[in-house]
Amino acid sequence: MFGYDVGISGGVTSMDGFLQKFFPEVYDRKHSPNNTDGNYCKYDNQKLQAFTSSLYIAGLLATYVASWTSRRYGRRPTMQIAAATFIIGTTLCSAAQNIIMLILGRVLLGIGVGFANQAVPLFLSEMAPYQIRGALNIMFQLAVTIGILIANLVNFGTEKIHPWGWRLALGLAGVPAGLLTIGSMFVLETPNSLIERGHLEQGKKVLQKIRGTNEVEAEYEDMIAASEVAKAVKHPFRNIIQRRNRPQLIIAIVLQISQQLTGINAIMFYAPVLFQALGFGSSASLYSAVITGVVNVLSTLVAVAIVDRVGRRKLLLESGGQMLLAQVVIAFILGYQLKDTGSLPSASAIVVVIAICVFVSGFAWSWGPLGWLIPSETFPLETRSAGQSITVSTNLLFTFLIAQLFLSMLCHMKFYIFVFFSACIVCMTLFTIFFIPETKGIPIEEMQGLWASHWYWKRFIPTDPVLEQELKMRGSSLERRHDDVETGKEAT
Q1: Which residues are listed as membrane-spanning (predicted)?
Q2: For 424-441, what is each residue's pLDDT tens digit?
């Protein structure tokens, strides 16, 4: 649902029928033989960018309401609200007769995205056994990349249906929203959420069902203890800014900012527009976007396969170098070979597409999924909903800024915009080296010990005997749980 909307907007904004109806000045500039604005400025229009970005500012605001519904009523109802709102927004967009109707539909889509991005990562982290939590949580990002690929394929097909192909492209967003509506009727509420809301026996039964065994006492006791701490917190947003919660909060915020400043959404949102700016024809630009979409999906599958074996830090560091190399190559070729008029030589255009695929693959098996995974598994239960809201809202704020500013930045900075993204990648890789610890294989309830042993973050964690004893007890609980798992494997 989220991925489809990320991918569909770039293709729709490059379609002539859509531009003629809502943005005739952009259409005239695109097709004018006397266009003086050059390759980089064909699509520089604030209203056109608002069509893409309005979804994300709405999602930013909606996630705080979603935090309340997720905590008060559960993860499952929050997903259902997301699906219903998204269906209404899809209907408005596909039937839009004017710019107001179009933007209103996008705002409703944004509300759906805000609710879904709040509930789904929490749902996945809380349902998953800790041994495979990374792989299962990355299914969220995998679904996003599949949605982007499907949107690119739809764009490629509907671009040839003139002048109403864009309506079909926008309307098909109702399919994943419908799937979420149906699916959310069958899934169980998470045991963490049930226990947090006082349904202890029901929470235990769900835990036994999803673990496939009645021997869940250690994990259940940890959940009860975490729930008691959470109930004592009356104001989670006020609590989350306290000193002892600083490590999780800072890392979550920096991850989301870094995720956007890699330049990934500039490419994902505007891939067809970007390729056209580089001199590709309309169909060729959509075809190139499909190629990057395929790379995105396959690389996310790589992340699913290796994240719980390789770990989070190694993937973040490897991809930092990979994405930096790709951005430097793109900036170099565009700087030397793409002028304000004309197009790239064929060989150079192929190299640019390959470099973009290298960049996308690096992002897809690291910063893309891990930007969601790490925050969802590091916040304690008492601040988890609030932490997820801050994570989502930070992501959507910077997604909004990139969506609203990228075409203008491309126009004014030209190829230097890729130099800017390269500098951001260097900064975020350095942050990873010094400040992001490895969270692989650590149960959510045991994360507090991670910060207490980190060279920098330990200064934010109170060092009192009670806490140290609690960390030791939790360590023993983890060992018991590991032994239970191994015993279960032998019995099986």
Answers
A1: 48-69, 81-101, 107-124, 136-154, 166-188, 249-273, 285-307, 350-374, 386-409, 415-436
A2: 999 999 999 999 999 888
